[in-house]
Write a structure and sequence with these properties.
Elements (H helix, E strand, L loop, with lengths): L1 H18 L7 H15 L7 H28 L4 H14 L3 H21 L2 H38 L1
Length: 159
């Protein structure tokens, strides 16, 4: 049974690594679940409660960072708070349209909201570009936190 749990954990971590690149897949949550499975396979003898709670906190932080990043990018490009809300709404709505929706949704949301707020194309385009920059920054941060989770597990397990 321990081998099955360990293999399941490894598969979850590998799927989570893919999810760090493909936004549709909840990478940090899968990595966290996989590492918990790996610890469970070892009866939590090397990786204990503090490490598990730390991994969960990092996974939650990674998801929050990923969601908030598009709005942050919009703000850095000088857009209104409406564009931040639009980017967030576009990101959430984009989830229902697959991979393309996740990339295009925040741009469209920020663009439309800024166009409504300022009634000009140029600031609306900047808001959309800002949302894309935010998504890029969020993806990099999510990947860094995902690999940090794996590092924390390795240190707890082997050192």
């Amino acid at each position: 049974m321990s081998i099955f749990i360990l293999i399941s954990g490894i598969i979850l971590v590998l799927c989570g690594l893919v999810g760090l690149i493909i936004p549709v897949i909840p990478g940090p949550a899968l990595i966290c679940a996989g590492l918990i499975f790996a610890a469970w396979a070892d009866h939590f003898s090397h990786v204990g409660g503090i490490t598990i709670v730390t991994l969960i906190c990092f996974a939650v932080l990674a998801h929050i960072t990923d969601i908030v990043a598009a709005s942050f990018g919009v703000k850095k490009f000088g857009a209104s708070s409406w564009a931040s809300v639009g980017a967030f709404v576009g990101e959430v709505a984009g989830l229902f349209f697959g991979l393309a929706g996740i990339f295009i949704g925040p741009f469209i949301g920020a663009f439309i909201a800024e166009l409504i707020a300022r009634n000009r194309i140029e600031p609306a385009l900047r808001a959309g570009l800002g949302s894309w920059m935010g998504i890029l920054i969020g993806s990099v941060a999510k990947a860094a936190l995902g690999f940090t989770m794996i590092g924390i597990y390795i240190i707890a397990r082997f050192f």
